[in-house]
Amino acid sequence: MPIKIRHLIKDKVKIMPTNLSNAKNAKNDEFYTQYQDIGKEVNAYLEYNPNVFRDKTVLLPCDDPEWSNFTKYFAQNFKTFGLKKLISTSYAVESKKYKFGYQPTLFETKAPQFDKKKT
Predict the structure, then answer these.
(1) What residues contact 75, with CB distance under 8 A and at least 6 apart?
(2) CB-based burial label for 8 (10 Å; 0-12, 13-18, 19+)
(3) Residue 64 bridge partners (DSSP)
(4) Are residues 51 and 82 in contact, defined by beta-carbon separation less than 8 angstroms?
(5) Coil, strand, or helix at residue 41?
(6) Who contacts 89 (Cβ-Cβ below 8 Å, separation ≥6)?
(7) CA quadruple 87, 75, 108, 69: dihedral positive or negative?
(8) Residue 105: what pLDDT?
(9) Alpha carbon distance 40, 9 (integer Å)
(10) Over the stretch 2-58, which tens digit does the pLDDT of each residue have?
(11) Residues 33, 61: Cα–Cα separation, whole Å
(12) Which residue of 10, 41, 49, 63 has the fewest CB atoms within a 10 Å radius of its CB?
């Protein structure tokens, strides 16, 4: 049975439209979930079932796995949660502000499907 994400806490919902409006006005269309908010949400699941993540694979589709707060949070709590596997991936290399000098991460270069000619 899939886990349903609870709605954000009321005081956060009031703040969000202002932040999104400011981002739009600044021509910054990125809105990242705060590390603390991820912790609050995940703790609610853990209070309900402390083993909710045990032996599970977590897939995190991100804009940029190196900067994702979700990736950081689950990587830092990998052993605590008893995760089987953590996969953080992105298809958005073109969305980065720089268009030259792309340097793949260590995880990318050590992957069996990595092809230096295509990078």
Answers:
(1) 86, 88
(2) middle
(3) none
(4) yes
(5) helix
(6) 59, 60, 61, 62, 65
(7) positive
(8) 81
(9) 10
(10) 444 444 343 444 444 455 555 555 544 456 789 999 999 999 999 999 999 999 999
(11) 13
(12) 10
118: β partners: none
SS3 of residue 89 by DSSP: strand
Please name the amino acid found at residue 115. D
Q: Determine the pLDDT at residue 23.
A: 52
Domain boundaries, the chain: 20-95
Q: Which residues of 47-82 are buried (b: 16+ CB within 10 A; e: fewer)?
A: eeeeeebeeeebebebeebeebbbbebbeebeeebe
